Description:
single chain
Amino acid sequence: xxxxxxxxxxxxxxxxxxxxxxxxxxxxxxxxxxxxxxxxxxxxxxxxxxxxxxxxxxxxxxxxxxxxxxxxxxxxxxxxxxxxxxxxxxxxxxxxxxxxxxxxxxxxxxxxxxxxxxxxxxxxxxxxxxxxxxxxxxxxxxxxxxxxxxxxxxxxxxxxxxxxxxxxxxxxxxxxxxxxxxxxxxxxxxxxxxxxxxxxxxxxxxxxxxxxxxxxxxx
Length: 219
């Protein structure tokens, strides 16, 4: 996924960014709400991680404005505010989950996966696609009972198709899933990763709509 992290604590922000990137997601990290607005205006994100106390404002009003604009991007609040009233306010403002600092980074990864699956319409992490058995939470899959090993970027790309079965995904949309603002993008990166996925999973697992994009097929 492409994740927007809004966090002004530099130590926690760096640790969170590294954890998410280590899971294979693309992360754009900002420390101010005005920078977050700029990022949201420039790109589409699959998830927002939102601190509630930022240098230029509070997270709850920011979230209410986002939801008021019709933004449906899932939001997980990350905050030191641990009162029940704080959690209620965050959830009522439109947050999908609420994690109190200090938190375990592995738990954050699990919550990100859970929220992403709910938004994809299938909260079950275990999926079957033809001869493929896929555990999205564990990032493990088998083809005809044999384990298939994917690189982190191959997983991110494959998850984009699994989360939107049957939908046509453009090359630009897939590139957004793989890279953040400050990453170099090879012009043929998507083609290379899709070629590798086809070799591992089957020639028809990803179908090409020439000039339009790609969609999930069957292995």
